[in-house]
Structure formats: structure tokens, C-alpha cells
Design goal:
Layout (H helix, E strand, L loop, with lengths): L1 H7 L4 E9 L3 E8 L4 E8 L1 H4 L4 H12 L11 E6 L7 E9 L4 E2 H8 L4 H20 L12 E4 L2 E4 L4 H9 L18 H4 L7 H17 L9 H10 L5 H4 L5 H10 L11 H8 L4 H7 L11 H12 L18 E6 L14 E3 L5 E8 L2 E8 L7 E2 L7 E5 L5 E6 L2 E6 L8 E2 L10 E5 L2 E5 L5 E5 L4 E5 L9 E7 L5 E7 L6 E7 L5 E9 L1 E5 L2 E5 L5 E7 L4 E2 L4 E4 L12 E3 L4 E4 L6 E5 L5 E6 L4 E5 L5 E8 L2 E8 L4 E4 L7 E5 L5 E6 L2 E6 L7 E4 L4 E6 L5 E6 L5 E6 L7 E5 L5 E6 L5 E6 L6 E6 L3 E6 L6 E5 L5 E8 L2 E11 L3 E11 L12 E3 L6 E5 L5 E6 L1 H9 L10
Antiparallel strand pairs: 1-2, 2-3, 3-5, 4-5, 6-7, 7-8, 9-57, 10-11, 11-12, 12-13, 14-15, 15-16, 16-17, 18-19, 19-20, 20-21, 22-23, 23-24, 24-25, 26-27, 27-28, 28-29, 28-30, 31-32, 32-57, 33-34, 33-56, 35-36, 36-37, 37-38, 39-40, 40-41, 41-42, 43-44, 44-45, 45-46, 47-48, 48-49, 49-50, 51-52, ...
Helix pairs in contact: 3-6, 5-8, 5-12, 9-14, 11-13
Length: 884
């Protein structure tokens, strides 16, 4: 990195060495060639710069360059480096400050642990003077901490002023893509910890007070074993009086600290100057006692503490406060962080599950190169931990009594008992295949959606029974299980006309097959809890409505609980609901299409949609992909030269495009078959194959379509579809295991594909079309192979030291096939995989790759006691009962 940066800045700065690294940037010592002075250059971390608009960042940071104050480290320069001329992405975002001989306050605290009271107050008042100046100029620091306070000859200087604001503004709310957060947990204000959108100057006052608290006591106001624990304490626990830890602190300093560390911003000092004045005014403590200043007990911290208990155990506030039996429970919303190494993913259509009592959360995430189930006990402060034996797991669901968890993995439905002790899961009988979605019908049986769209009952003894079929006369193809109404045999399903889970919500009585329409609008997920129906809409909103489970009908008006909830590929809202009144969901974040070179350097091509299955046109000038817009999933094309987007399909279920080899046609999946349309959008769509659920993967040189289809065992097999003879499908490779992601070498002689026949997904190559012996290409896990245009490299998604990596396998693919070497190229943790096809592509020039960047989603949002919000809004004037 330093070599690239040195070359980029050679005309202005000469880099000498790295000085250190922080959460957002790496710092280098450099020589300013024009002014002959030493400077410090801070370069934003690549993962952060990747989601920022460079122009917006440079624009925002110019505001801070105008701040001139003796205790503010000035900003000399800022900008971006890189090859705008050659069309590549910008290499770096950077800013330049003076190089200060001295140390940070963090260095001093690490060495001395505690400072003298006079020295600590002097540093605080001088920093407060800098803050007051900046606040009057409309700039809030947002990240005051000992690391950002430099000491030069004993005089404090505040660094990175406004950088956090510039980053936040440039990111446009996309900070979750980086796995980073603005603000350091120990010094965050409660409003920062709860992700309030509006941060005022009083937040900086709180952070500065936290720094003073540490200078006086040797520790921040709140400690914890993890960032999440610290944040929960900031929200819920009062700060211990500073005199409990250091009795010599003067009364006015103790009183000023107590006021500055109030949970409620309105109860703190209005300005940093007022805080500084109180620290140096011996009469301030007396004013507090006389009532001249708002006393600390005015803020009732119990609702905050109760909300924290709600998050950790699902307890209602009314149960905690004496004499409040009739009080309505508080509706609390919190963000909970997830380890960036186990980032959340929306690939399984149902990745979250809450136990009936709301006390245990299980979610599916991509740990390394495969999925894994993780557990979090909400009554404990421990971080998420993997559930043993659930590698490859998805679609988790708790039994009604909360003692077992069912999930799908390795082509089977598996069950593990709670608590998770490490005992191996029990797989259901050999005749039971993994279904697309499952739920518990009772404590002794499950209900799931089979590969042909039927509802099936699966007994824990391995028995399978048909419950209901889609209504083909109404165009239905799948009955996707959503939730089972408690105490009954009634299942709510979405009746889908395609492969997308979205459809009308229908109740099916599994005893007699009787159906009742519940909602006429399209939904993509639904849950029932305590008299309410919660459902996801295609636009990303979560709605709740009163629901009579006995008579299977809605009885109230819908209330929006959340917006911009993440949608899975196929349309399912990423959320879970418990009977205890707890709801958790994954917030949506922008996906982006990115172009990468072999070093992993990326350029954003397009943003703002849930892009899926990108494919280069044969001439490399256009892309085809699909995404959901207004509830409709369709195929679009993108002109890389013009930067224009055009819609190709209009069936509201078009996806997974494939180019013909001459670039004239685009084939895509729709309604269980393969269709094609002219790539320029002209003419009608033609049906190429209908019947069994099959998906085109690519076209062979002679026009045959390579595809993947669900076999008799419920897993994907490789097939060929004839474009000349519609409705003709022939098996190519069918085993009891999953074969998918097939792709032909440029000379048409070698077929690469993925199979899990060895117990995990691996990449294999065999002759085409003869078949015969196969060669294992991947060492360990490997998925989604793609050939280079010259046929000398087979790329695939593998792993190195547990991290997902793009691997380049150098091969000889002539008369015989040989792997010469395997070279890891770059980390692909941020890029979304798919099935049964690759979710990325190699450019025709062989030097670039197109991928879907899903960022690192490291947050979940909890809503506690959400039924109270529905009741309150339904009882508001003007809200009547829904028509029945």
C-alpha cells in the first residue's frame, strides 16, 4: 500500500514511514515538498473508502479546513488519488495535517494511568474551548477520545475535527457496509450508542466528560468485555460518582462531570463552554444543591435500564416499576452489533429465528466460505457463538415448546436440542430431503415446501405426507410455508406464481385442505404472535395487524413497524418474531455492482439495488443482471460506456440472465422455465423451455443450454435444454448429491461444476459431453467456477486460512486436463454467493471481474413490545376496524 501511495503522491509529498493505524485510517509521516515541512498524511482504510463518494468526502472535509483555533490541529490538504484518466477507481482518500512532536493523551494515560486533578481539568477546559469554537461554526466532532487529543509541549490539540462528520456525510448512511462505526464505544454518548440520526453538540460534551472521567479515575465511565457490553451500559447504567473512585476530586468538578454525563442530552450542559466554566467554578456544586442547576436525580434512568433488560430478556417495563401495573409497556428499539467476521447474509430466505420466549436468537451467517448457525442468549452479555454441528445450515426454526431447533443442511432436515451442548444434530430419515422452507406443525412434526411447490408433513420418525398442492388453475407454482397458527393445524403460506417467495397470504387447513385468503396484497414473509400478524411487504416494510387466529381473519388496521428491512434473494424479509413480543430484523443496506482487477482493487459500477447474477455480454460492453424493484424481480441490462440502465423483462419474475454466444439474445428464468428476448429489448419474449423447474446456466457453442434442475432427490442435477426443440430436457450429471454452477471451457471440451459429494462443496472438472473421470480442482471448499477467456485459468471461490478468497487455478485444458497451480487473489468476504449458478463473472478481456458487493452487514435491530405500538396506533382517533 505504501508503494502505491508513494507513487500517487510523489509530485507533492515524499512518504517516509508509517506512524500508526486507527479505526478509520492509516497515518504516514511525509515531507511536504512545496513547503519543506513534515506532515502527517491520514489515508482512509480501503474498506471505508470503497463505500464513500470521493467527491462528497472532499467537499465535506473542506468545511473543517476553515477551522482555525489554537487547540485544533489544522487541516493542510485533502483529496483523492488515482487514475481518473484511465477509468479506474480512485486509489485513496486522504487528508494532511501538521506533524506534531509529542504524544497523544492515550499514550500519556497508558503510561501514567491517572493525571493530576489540575492537569486533567486544564486539558479538559482547553479542549472544551476548541469544541465550543467548532460548535459555533456548525461542526460537531463526533469522535472525542484520548487518541484524538495530541499533547504538544503540554498543550492539547484536537485532531480529526469533522472527519467523522465528513465520512458519515459522504457514506450517505452506508457505514454498515464497512463493518466500522463512527465513535469509540467507551466515549460514545447514549444517543450515538442508540444510533440517533440527529447528533448535537451535547454529544461532544458527553464524550469529553468521559475522557475527563478517565483522566481522573484511570478508567472510562463504563467498562465491558466487548463493545456491545459497553454500549448497553452506556444506555442503561448510571455512571458511578467520580468521588467513589477518587475522593480528592473537588465537589464542583464532580458535579460538573455528573451533569455532563447525563443520559438525556437535554439534562447536560448546553455548550462546551458551560461545561468548562462549571469545572473552574468552585460555587457550581453549591448551585446544584440550591437548585440553580438541574440536579442529576431529575433524569429517570429506569426506562433506559428497563429497555436494556427488555433487550436482554424480553421483560416488560410494567413489571419492573413499582405501582405501574396499569402502565403500558415501553416500545424499545435497539441496534445490536454482530462480529464482522460472521457477517449477516440474505441468501437463505429465512436466516433468523427467535425462541418462543424471545430469549434465544439463532441466525445463519457466512462464516468463512460456508454458512453456519450462530446463537445468542439474550439474557447474557456474551457475543454470538457458533452452534456446533450446524455447518452449512440455514432456515432455522424453533419447536413450539422451545426445546429443539430444526434447520436444513447438507440436503437434509436436521434437529438439535437446546441448550446447545455440542451434541451432534439428528438428521431425519433417508427419504426426507431438505425443503426450501420449514416450520413446526406440532412438537412431533414439521411442515415444509417441497421442490414441486407442494406442502408436506414430515414426522420426526421420517414419515412424509402430502398436505396440499398449489392451485395451478390460478397460476400458482409454490406454497411457501410462512407460519403455523398455534394450537391448530392451519398453516399460513404465500401462494406464489413463480420461484419468488412473494405472493398472496393464504391459510391452509392441513386436515382437509380448505383454503382461506388472509391478505390480498403480496407479502414475502409472515409470522403470528399473540393475536397479531406480522408480515413483510415487497417494498421492505414490516407491517403488523390484529388477527383472529380462530376465525382466520384480520380485525384491525395495519401499522408499520419498520422500513427498509433487508430482503433475501427470492424476496423474503430477513426478520423473526417471538410470542413474547420481541421482533428482530436485518436493516437493508445498498448493494453495489463492482468491477475488480486481480489485486482486488474495485470500482463501483452501479448502486442502489439488490443486484443478482451479473453477466458480461460477449463484447464486454454491457452487463445483464436482475433485481427487485417495487416488488417485481426482473432482468435489466447496463451499458458500461453510457452508464444507462434498461429493463429487459416485464413478467415480475424474470431472473438469472444468460447471454447467447453472439450477444444477440438474453436467456432468463421465469415461471419454472427458460425464456429469451433480444438483448436490445426488441420483440416479445419467447418460451424456450417449460415444464420442470430448470434454470439456464450458459449456452454451449452449438446452442445447447446447460442448466440445473431439481432432481428426484430434491437436489440440483445438471441437465441440457434444447433451444431448438422446446420442452426437451436431458440429464447430464445426476447423483444423490448437489451438482450446480456448471460452466464450459472456451474450447467446449471441459465442464467445470460444483458438487458436495465429498461432504462439502468442491469444484470438479470432467470432459464434455462424454463425462468420464473427474478432476478435483479446489483444495478444500470451492464454489462458483468461471473460466478465463483463454481457457488457461479456472477461477473459483475458495478459502485460505478460513477466509473466502477468489482462487485462480492455472490449468492445461487441451486433450487432457491438469491443474498446475492455485493462486489466492483477494478476499471476497463482502461478495454475495448464489445457487445454483455463479453470482459473478469474468470480463471477456480476462483482466476484470464483476461481483455483487453486499458489504459487511454487522447490525440487527430489535423491537421490544411491538404489540403495544399496534394497539396504540389502532386506538388513535381516526383509526377504525378494518373491513371484514
Amino acid at each position: 500500500m505504501i508503494e502505491r501511495l508513494t507513487a500517487s503522491l510523489a509530485d507533492r509529498y515524499r512518504l517516509e514511514r508509517e506512524l500508526g493505524q486507527g479505526g478509520m485510517a492509516t497515518v504516514y509521516l511525509a515531507q511536504d515538498l512545496k513547503h519543506h515541512r513534515q506532515v502527517a498524511i491520514k489515508v482512509l482504510k480501503p474498506e471505508l473508502a470503497a463505500v464513500l463518494g470521493a467527491d462528497r468526502f472532499v467537499q465535506e472535509i473542506t468545511t473543517t479546513a476553515q477551522l482555525q483555533h489554537p487547540h485544533i490541529l489544522p487541516l493542510f490538504d485533502s483529496g483523492r488519488t488515482g487514475g481518473q484518466a484511465d477509468g479506474r477507481s480512485d486509489d485513496f482518500l486522504y487528508y494532511v495535517m501538521p506533524y506534531i512532536e509529542g504524544e497523544t493523551l492515550r499514550n500519556k494515560l497508558d503510561r501514567e494511568h491517572q493525571l493530576g486533578i489540575d492537569e486533567a481539568v486544564k486539558i479538559t477546559t482547553e479542549v472544551a474551548d476548541a469544541l465550543d469554537y467548532a460548535h459555533r461554526h456548525g461542526v460537531i466532532h463526533r469522535d472525542i477520545k484520548p487518541e484524538n487529543i495530541l499533547l504538544h509541549d503540554g498543550r492539547p490539540m484536537v485532531a480529526d475535527f469533522g472527519i467523522a462528520l465528513a465520512v458519515s456525510a459522504a457514506a450517505g448512511g452506508r457505514m454498515t457496509e464497512t463493518g466500522l462505526s463512527l465513535g469509540t464505544p467507551h466515549y460514545m454518548s447514549p444517543e450515538q450508542a442508540t444510533a440517533e440520526k440527529e447528533i448535537t453538540a451535547r454529544s461532544d460534551v458527553y464524550s469529553l466528560a468521559s475522557v475527563l472521567y478517565e483522566m481522573l479515575t484511570g478508567q472510562p465511565p463504563h467498562l465491558g468485555g466487548s463493545a456491545q457490553q459497553v454500549i448497553m451500559k452506556i444506555i442503561a447504567e448510571p455512571v458511578a460518582a467520580v468521588t467513589n473512585l477518587r475522593k480528592s476530586v473537588p465537589p464542583n468538578v464532580a458535579a460538573a462531570l455528573a451533569k455532563a454525563l447525563e443520559k438525556l442530552p437535554a439534562d447536560r450542559f448546553e455548550t462546551a463552554k458551560a461545561f468548562a466554566d462549571a469545572l473552574t467554578d468552585p460555587s457550581f456544586a453549591a448551585l446544584v444543591k440550591k437548585g440553580g442547576v438541574t440536579p442529576r436525580p431529575r433524569f429517570d434512568w429506569r426506562p433506559w435500564a428497563a429497555a436494556a433488560v427488555l433487550l436482554l430478556g424480553g421483560v416488560g417495563l410494567g413489571r419492573l416499576l413499582p405501582g405501574s401495573r396499569a402502565a403500558a409497556p415501553i416500545v424499545a428499539r435497539f441496534r445490536v452489533s454482530v462480529d464482522a467476521l460472521h457477517s449477516l447474509t440474505g441468501t437463505p430466505q429465512n436466516t433468523l429465528a427467535l425462541s418462543p420466549d424471545g430469549g434465544t436468537l439463532v441466525y445463519a451467517a457466512r462464516g468463512g466460505s460456508t454458512f453456519q448457525l450462530y446463537e445468542r442468549r439474550l439474557d447474557q452479555l456474551d457475543d454470538f457463538r457458533p452452534v456446533p454441528g450446524t455447518e452449512g445450515g440455514g432456515y432455522p426454526t424453533f419447536s413450539p415448546d422451545g426445546t429443539r431447533l430444526a434447520f436444513t443442511a447438507n440436503g437434509k432436515i436436521q434437529i438439535v436440542r437446546l441448550p446447545f451442548t455440542g451434541a451432534p444434530p439428528i438428521a431425519l430419515g433417508a427419504g426426507v430431503q431438505s425443503l426450501s422452507v420449514i416450520d413446526w406443525l406440532s412438537d412431533s412434526s414439521l411442515v415444509g415446501t417441497a421442490s414441486d411447490g407442494r406442502l408436506e408433513r414430515i414426522g420426526l420418525n421420517g414419515s412424509v405426507a402430502l398436505l396440499a398442492r398449489p392451485d395451478s388453475t390460478a397460476g400458482e407454482r409454490n406454497l411457501f410455508v410462512q407460519t403455523v397458527l398455534p394450537g391448530s393445524q392451519v398453516v399460513l403460506v404465500t401462494a406464489s406464481t413463480g420461484s419468488n417467495v412473494t405472493g398472496r397470504l393464504v391459510a391452509v387447513d392441513t386436515r382437509n385442505g380448505r383454503r382461506v385468503n388472509v391478505l390480498d396484497t403480496d407479502v414475502n414473509q409472515a409470522w403470528y404472535a399473540n393475536g397479531y400478524l406480522v408480515y413483510g411487504e415487497p417494498n421492505g416494510a414490516l407491517e403488523a395487524i390484529a388477527f383472529d387466529a380462530r376465525h382466520v381473519r384480520v380485525t384491525g388496521s395495519a401499522v408499520t413497524l419498520a422500513e427498509r428491512v433487508r430482503q433475501a434473494i427470492g424476496g423474503g424479509a430477513q426478520a423473526a418474531v417471538s410470542a413474547s413480543g420481541t421482533l428482530v430484523y436485518q436493516p437493508e443496506q445498498p448493494f453495489s455492482l463492482v468491477m475488480l482487477d486481480r489485486t482486488g482493487r474495485q470500482q463501483v459500477v452501479a448502486e442502489g439495488h439488490r443486484f443478482h447474477s451479473p453477466r458480461f455480454s460477449p463484447d464486454g460492453r454491457r452487463l445483464a443482471f436482475d433485481f427487485i424493484q417495487d416488488g417485481a424481480r426482473d432482468v435489466w441490462t447496463y451499458d458500461l460506456r453510457q452508464g444507462t440502465l434498461s429493463r429487459l423483462s416485464f413478467e415480475k419474475d424474470g431472473h438469472d440472465p444468460v447471454w447467447s454466444r453472439d450477444g444477440r439474445w438474453i436467456y432468463y428464468d421465469h415461471a419454472g422455465g427458460t425464456w429469451r428476448r433480444r438483448a436490445d429489448g426488441g420483440g416479445p419474449a419467447d418460451s424456450v423451455f417449460t415444464g420442470d423447474a430448470a434454470q439456464a446456466l450458459e449456452l454451449t457453442p452449438n446452442g445447447t443450454i446447460l442448466g440445473a434442475a431439481i432432481g428426484s432427490n430434491g437436489q440440483f442435477d445438471l441437465v441440457t435444454l434444447s433451444a431448438d426443440s422446446p420442452h426437451t430436457m436431458k440429464p447430464l450429471l445426476a447423483t444423490p448429491y448437489t451438482e450446480e454452477a456448471a460452466t464450459l471451457s472456451p474450447n467446449g471440451r471441459w465442464l467445470a461444476y460444483t458438487s458436495d459429494e465429498a461432504g462439502r462443496a468442491q469444484v470438479y472438472v470432467r470432459q464434455y459431453p462424454e463425462g468420464g473421470a473427474k478432476v478435483a480442482v479446489s483444495q478444500g471448499t470451492g464454489i462458483e467456477p468461471r473460466w478465463s477467456p483463454d481457457g488457461r485459468t479456472l477461477y473459483y471461490e475458495g478459502e485460505r486460512e478460513g477466509l473466502p478468497m477468489l482462487i485462480a487455478a492455472s490449468v492445461v485444458a487441451g486433450t487432457d486436463f491438469t491443474v498446475i497451480a492455485r493462486t489466492p487473489l483477494f478476499d471476497i468476504s463482502h461478495y454475495e454467493p448464489a445457487s445454483p449458478h455463479a453470482n459473478w463473472d469474468v470480463a471477456p478481456d480476462g483482466s476484470r471481474f464483476i461481483m455483487v458487493n453486499q458489504g459487511v452487514l454487522t447490525q440487527m435491530v430489535f423491537i421490544m413490545n411491538w404489540p403495544e405500538e399496534v394497539r396504540r396506533q389502532n386506538s388513535a382517533p381516526g383509526r377504525g376496524e378494518a373491513s371484514r
